Amino acid sequence: MSLAALQQEFMGHVLDEERPLPRHWDARMGEGLAIYRNAYRTRLIDALRETSPKTALWVGDEAFAQAAAHRLILHPPQGWTLDLIGEGFVETLEELFAADPDVADLAWLEWAMHLAFTAPDCPPMDAAGFAEATSDFGEEDWATMRLAFMPSLHVRAVSRDCGALWRALEREEPPANAPLPESPMHCIVWREGLEPVFAQVPARDGNHLAAMRAGSSFGEICAALAEELPADQAAAEAGAMLGDWIGRGIVQGVSSGLPVAG
Amino acid sequence: MSGIPSFHGFGLGLRRPHYSAFMAGDVPVDFIEIISENYMVDGGRPLAVLDAVRERYPVAMHGVSLSVGSAQGVDWDYLARLKALAERIEPLWMSDHLCWTRTSAHNSHDLLPLPYTAEALDVVCANLARAQDALGRELLLENPSSYCSFPDDEMAEWEFLSEVCRRTGCHLLLDVNNVYVSARNHGFAADDFLAGIPMERVRQIHLAGHTPGAILIDTHDREVCDDVWALYAEAIAMTGPVATMIERDDAIPPLPVLLAELDVARDIAAQTERRAA
């Protein structure tokens, strides 16, 4: 057997305990393979649990282990880093817990916090920096202004009050049901210094933040607000949102003009 | 290609529960070993911690994902990130394991055993040579613990390792616990292993605990056992002074417990040196 064929065969046994042993691999080989298989499963399920401890607490350890095993069977890891083992796990939980959207919301929040933890280092733009950068902006510059956001920023519409659920699970006091927010919310995650943090914002703010993060201009956001609110309120709301983003430290830079093609 | 600096002393692994003590620089060790992959990230606390620790201690980089035995060859993206980390912290040296971790489709995140065949030897030597060229330095290769051996084997593990050293110029990270575990699991004499490898190539020694049973398992979750201490004494009598560290990855105790265990290594090394003088 070539080395490539042997490694394919061996990996097949690590992933699948039902796979029959090749004729020339004896029972002793089978015992050794079982150790590797068990270590593989334990290590990867533990790694998922480490990135999603509150989700594990929320759904219960057994249900979490089943979900993690389901994920690993359908999507065995490919990359070299165990740090990204949770990539796609939120989608798995969305399928498995379709009737309980709070599970995927919570898992998303933990995954976003995990990613923010090791996101690239860069200083946020503060209010003074923003004022300086926009000091010579004319009307056209404001309309075409685009923001670069911190690489640690993640945004998602959530169906439950993730903040309340997070805090309850932090105290290890899971509530009977996931608390509903008073109004539709988005959850945003970023990093302050070395600490990942999150906040819940009204859905309208979250939608506009997501749009600007995806490349919309400030003018487009103002136009969208003007369709929802009276003109003076829309302008005030746009300014307030901008101030909120800068105040939170999620803006990294600012530019104006049409986006550069390519 | 840069060589390995002459260095010996006693060290510990950088693990999360002990971050603050190592950052303060008040842990009496001569060097720190990191798991390279834990710091091959874009930014944030892990790199901030590592930078602070590096200001206070020499650091050895120990990897688990090189997969030097993969028939598919080396992962160039992985090597590029590994090199970037090395350039950032200027390690004493870099090491990984004589094993494979991945096929073209999947990554096991485990140190899987190689068949000791001429074909595997060619693959390991070619991959290691490419990795050493890419990193611009000689690497240390560690003997792993293993739980099965292949009917295809054409040579002993120590013969395989010796030939890899001869062909690639690499050095060795001798894991004494792994020698003990594999010897027990495969029925060879640990002394044969020690006598069979080029001891002058050993630049670092690992010591760790294992879980006993019908098949011993290298769990790094308990103290070094007496048999492994005895084997360590034999090994350093052959190597002379060499960098030694205790590896603990699970059930990590408070630092004083690990430092006391490291003192045992220091005592054994001192006794061995006195006997040799």
TrEMBL record, chain A:
Domain Putative DNA-binding positions: 6-91
InterPro entries: DUF2063 (IPR018640)
Superkingdom of the organism of origin: Bacteria
Protein name in UniProt: DUF2063 domain-containing protein
TrEMBL record, chain B:
Family annotation (InterPro entries): MbnB/TglH/ChrH, Xyl_isomerase-like_sf
Matches recorded under SUPFAM superfamilies: Xylose isomerase-like
PANTHER family associated with the record: UPF0276 PROTEIN HI_1600
HAMAP family documented for this protein: UPF0276
Protein family (similarity comment): Belongs to the UPF0276 family.
Protein known as: UPF0276 protein EQG66_00845
Organism lineage: Bacteria, Pseudomonadati, Pseudomonadota, Alphaproteobacteria, Sphingomonadales
